[in-house]
Amino acid sequence: MTGRPAGRPLVPAYLSTGGVARPSRPQLERLSVLTRGDAPVPAGLPAAALALLDVLEGGALALVEAAALLRLPVSAVRVLAADLADRDLLLARAPIPPADRFAPDLLKRVADGLRALKH
Fold first, then answer.
1. How many CB atoms lie within 10 A of CB 38?
2. Is residue 6 included in any domain, yes or no?
3. Separation between Cα atoms, residue 9 and residue 6, nearest integer Å
C-alpha cells in the first residue's frame, strides 16, 4: 500500500475546528508563542486539538510554526489554540516585539570610543 500523495488534506480545515470559523481570542497572531498548560487533558478532545498539544509537548512554538507542523491553515490553528487556551490547556502570549533601532549617532560614538581605546 502506498502513502497518500501530497496535496489536499484528508480532512478539510473547517472540520478540524468543529466548524468554528473565528477564534474566541482575536489577539492571537501568527507569531503568538504557544506552550502547553499544566491542566490535565480531558477525554473527548478533537484529534486536531490533541495533535496541537502533542506538537507543543517539546516546548514553545509560534502559532505559524505549529500550523506548519500540523499541515493546517494558520486560521484553523488560531481557532484550535484559542479553544485550548480557554480550557487552560494551552498558554498563549504575544509575540516578542522587535527591538528598537540604535541611533546612528550612538553607534558612531561607540566606534570612536573603541578606536580611542585601541591607540
1. 7
2. no
3. 8
Residue 14 has pLDDT above 90, yes or no: no
Grid coordinates representing 1? 500500500
| Better pLDDT: 23 or 108 | 108
β-strand 61-62 against 90-93: which pairing, if any? unpaired
Q: Give me the domain span that covers residue 40.
A: 13-117
Structural domain contains residue 69:
yes
Q: Is residue 2 part of a domain?
A: no
How many domains, the chain? 1
Q: What gap in Å lies between CA 73 and CA 58, rounded to an integer?
A: 21
Mean pLDDT (whole number) for 62-90: 92
pLDDT at 90: 93
Nearest CA to 38 out of 84, 95, 77 is that of 84
Q: Which residue has the higher pLDDT, 67 or 6?
A: 67
**Is 7 among the domain residues?**
no
Q: pTM of the full predicted structure?
A: 0.68
